């Protein structure tokens, strides 16, 4: 028996996203980190210098309180540092450690492989068209009124 909504675009997108995330998470397991932690490492590696919790949360489009818990775990794993600034003790700066750089350097190639795999057998035009379609779908959802 087939799931009644198996042919719906939204169902296909969710299933594909879940599968990609699960496959990528398998690559992260040996490093003891989660996908959200990996994303933080990428932000810090690709944008050098200390950052605040707010700048990182805006870049990743995640709630600062959720990010704060991840940063706490990442600090314990020696992936990032978290220090209060001397000029304003309320501001906490977050930076990547040498261990965080090493982990990111080993994991970023997996992301590049996943990207290449997703584009395999697609022409440049198909990739551009798909990108436009996904942007339209995302816009459709941003126009959706809030639940409740």
UniProtKB/TrEMBL annotation:
Residue stretches making up the HTH marR-type domain: 6-139
The protein, known as: MarR family winged helix-turn-helix transcriptional regulator
Organism per entry: Neorhizobium turbinariae
Pfam families hit by this protein: MarR_2
């Amino acid at each position: 028996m087939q799931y009644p909504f198996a042919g719906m675009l939204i169902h296909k997108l969710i299933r594909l996203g879940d599968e990609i995330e699960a496959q990528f998470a398998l690559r992260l397991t040996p490093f003891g980190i989660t996908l959200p932690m990996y994303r933080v490492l990428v932000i810090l590696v690709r944008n050098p210098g200390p950052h605040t919790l707010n700048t990182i949360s805006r870049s990743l489009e995640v709630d600062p309180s959720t990010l704060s818990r991840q940063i706490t775990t990442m600090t314990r794993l020696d992936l990032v540092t978290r220090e209060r600034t001397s000029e304003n003790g309320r501001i906490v700066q977050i930076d990547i450690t040498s261990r965080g750089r090493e982990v990111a350097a080993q994991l970023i190639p997996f992301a590049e492989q996943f990207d290449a795999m997703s584009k395999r057998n697609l022409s440049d035009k198909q990739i551009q068209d798909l990108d436009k379609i996904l942007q339209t779908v995302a816009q459709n959802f941003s126009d959706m009124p809030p639940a409740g």
